[in-house]
Amino acid sequence: MATPMTAAQFAAALRAEGCTVVEVGDWETHNRNHMGPWGPVHGVMIHHTVTSGSARTVEICRTGYASLPGPLCHGVITKDGRVHLVGYGRANHAGAGDGDVLTAVINETALPADNEASTDGNRHFYGFECENLGDGVDPWTDAQLLAIERVSAAICRFHGWGAGSVIGHLEWQPGKVDPRGFSMQTMRGRVAARLDGNQQEEEMALSADDKAWFEGAIKRLVPVAVLTTDGIIDNPVKGSENTHISLETSVRNIEIVARRTEAKVIGLGAPSISDAQVAALASALAAHPALADLIAEKVATKLAARLAS
After folding, report:
1. pLDDT of residue 254
2. pLDDT, position 159
């Protein structure tokens, strides 16, 4: 059982995973909560829209139809891989589905055949509609599939779920075929690999300013002896098959950790740290490397206690 994220945590978690997020109108409060409960949440559900044209697709998912009012999901993933947030809370996307499937999702066991529609899915699933005609011909772009992987991993990571918590609409409600055009089993494999830290490093793109900042941070905080003349830094990950990784990869790894930490910190309402405080801390860490381990241990303990409360 998991309490739904706040809207701020939701957006932060997606960005922390590398998603390009577009916030549409009053998405944080646009929902169907007056029609039924939202939560506890147990999984992520993926759909296709049977529409074309990104702007039209986003608007339909935000407003819905006379017979099915919006929002029709929480996020719309368009062909370019952007994630448009159109609602948050209860949304008309999952409908009634198979209670045995829900149990399997909760337990992260093999999914049974969906042969009944007796359980409220809108209450229990985060939902993403993906721009596609659903005819088996309309192609799924690499950017779109990567975005599906990322949003799924972001939510699973936040709640501590595995890839078994990600399903397609066709696996939930009898008669549904979406998403059509790729395998949910394959997508779960991608999500699992991402959660295990095996995503391709080129997925994380840094702006020039961000790269310069993180490179500067590494050079200030990492003892000079660790850096070699060709700009290679020792891999800090114990047990890795690779004994060295490039400075650029180290920068990307730090950015990933920073973004994910930011998502957690937003949820805790932590105070900001001034530039002067950051500079002072950087100097102290450079002069006393052992101090970093002590700080990390104490911060981890405090965060664990706060997150568990």
Report:
1. 60
2. 97
Q: What are phi and psi of 69, to 5 degrees?
A: -65, 150
Separation between Cα atoms, residue 25 and residue 28, nearest integer Å: 8
Q: Whole-angstrom distance between the N-terminal and C-terminal Cα of the chain?
A: 15
**What's the whole-model pTM score?**
0.68
Average pLDDT over residues 37-65: 98
The pair of structure tokens assigned to 215 is 């490179």
Q: Do the Cβ atoms of 21 and 85 come closer than 8 Å?
A: yes
3-state secondary structure of 122: coil
Amino acid at 73: C
Work out whether the CA dihedral 94, 97, 98, 99 comes out positive or negative: positive
pLDDT score, position 201: 42
Task: Please give the CATH number for the structural domain made up of 7-195.
Answer: 3.40.80.10
Which conformational region is residue 134 in: left (phi greater than 0), alpha (psi within -120 to 50 degrees), or beta?
Answer: left
- Under the banding of pLDDT at 50, 70 and 90, the label for residue 52 is very high
| Angle formed at CA 213 by CA 307 and CA 243, multiple of 5 degrees | 75
CA 185 to chain CA mean position, Å: 18
Q: Where are the domains of the chain?
A: 7-195, 207-308
